[in-house]
Design a protein that fits this description.
Elements: E1 2-7, H1 15-26, E2 30-35, H2 40-50, E3 54-59, H3 64-76, E4 86-90, H4 100-109, E5 113-114, H5 119-136
Parallel strand pairs: 1-2, 1-3, 3-4, 4-5
Helix pairs in contact: 2-3, 3-4
The protein binds cobalamin.
């Protein structure tokens, strides 16, 4: 699959993105990495330009929940991106992973998978993408 990997608008951390890029490439995916501090407009423009099979959003600075909500809403507002699979994860809250209320809001906004920052979450991301690849095949 072609995966568009992106940091979120306020987040300047980069090693999370480097790690995830390697993780995805090791699983055979083609990764388009946008880097950190990507706002909703740049993200939607990049999705139109690269036509990825899925988007992976990563944030660890504590503002990921708010940033990812804005990003997902912007994607879902574009008719041609409304069905694009999106997973968001990392330390999405200010105390690490997001709380259940925040995760539920992200899902309601159209985020297909809301994940945390542990090894199990990486495996869950791998499984999420593998399931999407099977649907696309
Ligand atoms: C290095 C670092 C910085 C550097 C970043 C340099 C750079 N070029 O990246 C600098 C000094 C710039 C920095 C700044 C800040 N930081 Co900082 N930083 C760290 C630190 C020490 C290490 C991060 C790192 O590189 N880890 C290595 C990578 C590989 O691991 P990772 O980021 O955790 O990513 C893994 C998982 O989170 C997960 N994951 C990540 N994304 C996703 C997505 C999906 C879908 C999935 C499944 C998994 C996943 O997979 C990755 C691999 O295991 C952490 C503390 C820590 N020990 O984690 C704090 C930390 C992330 N920072 C923190 C904070 C608060 C900040 C600042 C806000 C501080 C400030 N007051 O200015 C700013 C944010 C600036 C901004 N605009 O974003 C907090 C975040 C708190 C939270 N979310 O609960 C942390 C956790 C420190 C702490 N304990 O308080 N930081």
């Amino acid at each position: 699959m072609k995966i568009l990997l992106s940091g979120t608008a306020s987040d300047s951390h980069t090693w999370n993105l480097v790690y995830l890029g390697l993780f995805l490439e090791e699983r055979g995916h083609d990764v388009v990495a946008l880097g950190p501090c990507v706002g909703p407009r740049l993200l939607t423009a990049a999705c139109r330009r690269h036509a990825p099979d899925a988007v992976v959003l990563s944030s660890v600075n504590g503002h990921g929940y708010r940033d990812a909500l804005a990003a997902v809403r912007a994607l879902r507002a574009e008719p041609e991106l409304a069905a694009l699979p999106v997973a968001a994860g990392g330390k999405l809250g200010i105390a690490g992973r997001s709380g259940e209320t925040e995760a539920a809001r992200l899902r309601a906004a159209g985020c297909d998978a809301v994940l945390g920052d542990g090894a199990g979450d990486l495996e869950a991301l791998g499984a999420f993408l593998a399931a999407r690849a099977q649907v696309a095949a």
